[in-house]
Amino acid sequence: MKTFVAVLGLASLVALSACDSAKENKVENAYENQADALDNQADNMEAAADNLSGNAENAAENAADALENKADATREAGEKAADAVEKHK
């Protein structure tokens, strides 16, 4: 499901990129890069959780979920920032 959402999001960005200004793309890409880094940290945390058990596993999985939520929030903030740049064109 995560992969499907990522592919759908990428397809949407490609479709919209023809309408975006260079500055808007730069802003959105910066946020997207931060979100990707958070997703990578979450993936690493989930992989580490697989090697743990009990409360330690739950804690690692919760930390990974928190990172994924932060990545989603970062992407949303990037979209809003890009929209703000677009409005000031």
UniProtKB/TrEMBL annotation:
Biased composition (Basic and acidic residues): 67-89
Keyword field contains Ubl conjugation: no
Transmembrane stretches, start-end: none
Name of this protein: Lipoprotein
Domain of life, source organism: Bacteria
Disordered: region residues: 45-89
Signal sequence, renumbered to the chain: 1-17
Residue spans of biased composition, Low complexity class: 55-66
